[in-house]
Amino acid sequence: MGKGRLEAFSDGVIAIIITIMVLELKVPHGDSLEELRKLIPVFLSYVLSFVNLGIYWNNHHHLLQAVRHVNGSILWANLHLLFWLSLFPFCTAWMGENNFTTIPVAFYGVVLFLAALSYFILTIALINHHGKDSPLGVAIGKDFKGKISLGFYGLSIPLAFVLPWLSCALFVLVAVIWLIPDRRIEKTLIP
């Protein structure tokens, strides 16, 4: 089957997730800078999640540009990814509202880890469907960025119980790694 509905549905879900997140940003109750300052943790958690969603959207787009068609396994793998991404508004709000304390930061790390794992699974499903010698299989290769991201997210979870700020630093580090556009697919598809 074609990939068009999968792309359109995924784009719509990610747009809704971002909309829900921005609606969670509440207006300060006063007109002073102090009232605005109280919202800094909420805003920072929003920025982190917005960047992460943007990274997923961008890489999902590139991933699907490298394939011709999808099957049922790919549809389910994509839904698995969208499920974990749909939890971003909840864990973003929880972490920001609680000033990056241990349990919310650990939970955010779990959601980031499972979103990354589900993206990895989607990639494997696509490569299995199209073949390891397909343009996508060649472009992804050993997927160092994907594996190192999973490692950092996995490390961030227990680290949150000791140094939550260091877990947050790992979240930012992974985002920075992926903010630099992943050119593997573009290099493979463009002669």
From TrEMBL:
Pfam family, any one: TMEM175
Transmembrane segments: 6-27, 39-57, 77-95, 107-127, 152-180
Membrane topology: Multi-pass membrane protein
A single GO cellular-component term on record: membrane
Domain of life: Bacteria
Reaction equations catalysed: K(+)(in) = K(+)(out)
Keyword Flavoprotein found: no
UniProt-annotated location(s): Membrane
InterPro entries: TMEM175-like
GO MF annotation terms: potassium channel activity; proton channel activity
Keywords associated with the record: Ion channel, Ion transport, Membrane, Potassium, Potassium channel, Potassium transport, Transmembrane, Transmembrane helix, Transport
Stated family: Belongs to the TMEM175 family.
PANTHER family on file: ENDOSOMAL/LYSOSOMAL POTASSIUM CHANNEL TMEM175 (PTHR31462), ENDOSOMAL_LYSOSOMAL PROTON CHANNEL TMEM175 (PTHR31462:SF5)
The name this protein goes by in its record: TMEM175 family protein
Organism: Tumidithrix elongata BACA0141
Organism classification: Bacteria, Bacillati, Cyanobacteriota, Cyanophyceae, Pseudanabaenales
